[in-house]
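It would be a great kindness if you could assist me with a short task in structural biology. A protein sequence and the structure tokens that stand for its backbone fold form the material at issue. I should value your view on which stretches of the chain appear to form regular backbone elements. The record follows directly beneath this note.
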Amino acid sequence: MKAMIFPKSLKKGDRIAVISPAGAVEESQLEKGLKLIQANGFEPVLGKNVYTKFSNGYLYAGTEAERTDALNWALNDNEISAVWASRGGYGCQHLLEGIKLTEFSKNPKWFIGYSDNTVIQSYLLKKGFASIHAQTVKTSGFGVSSKSYEQTFDILNGKMPHYSVEKNQYNKPGKAEGIIVGGNLALIYALLGTPYSFDFKDKILFIEDIGEKFYALDRMLMSLELAGVFRKIKGLIVGGMTLMEDEKENKNYNESFDEFACKIISERIARYDFPAVFGFPNGHIFDNRPLIIGANIKMKSGDICKIEF
């Protein structure tokens, strides 16, 4: 794999495009996030479709063409210094065949998001560009950890994160170094066998998810196993497994690391010798700390768990 390209640090007054590449969002849901961008010295610039609503069995933020155009504008407009997704939801896969990086390739910028945005981050990674798997603009209105946003702005300002993670009974001890790939497990699974799938060879894989039945979680893991993913990776980081089994009945968003989900993952990877860290603070959780997809990291799992960029 060619050397990963990291965007330049932002400076005060730089413009951050806010776009909605997937699900629809209400104007009130972005108010706090937009103010946060301004408070950190940047100018939020809204894409044309940010508050658009288009229903085709699911409420999208515009048609596929509208969402693709907004993404391409944000990526390629040279007056924009970073791109921040308003939310995830569903629909980013629709955009993959229409993404253009004509100007972006000459002037790379950070793309920030998580959940459904995993597929856009995989696309950028295939082209050699790092991105930030972190809170969307909308989640600032959920009362989430302020530190999760602070560290995202730290990255935009050129400061790389380092993490110490609490010991977890499902951890597999060991050390590994490699480029981190991944994001939302359902999207990693959905991209398998396509030209947009992550390259897993010698990588450290990160996974997180929300609202999945336990059998569906195992099915996704089984597909990764059958695709040879676990034979290729050098390490595994497991983030939030939130509202698992029955999202409608389990309303507690802070129950972020479902123990049975972790047990399923642990049993599926037991025969492999790579280290694994469970309970990493990233995902559909209160304290969603940023990860840089495409960055080289060092991970240590054991009594003390560390992730260093």
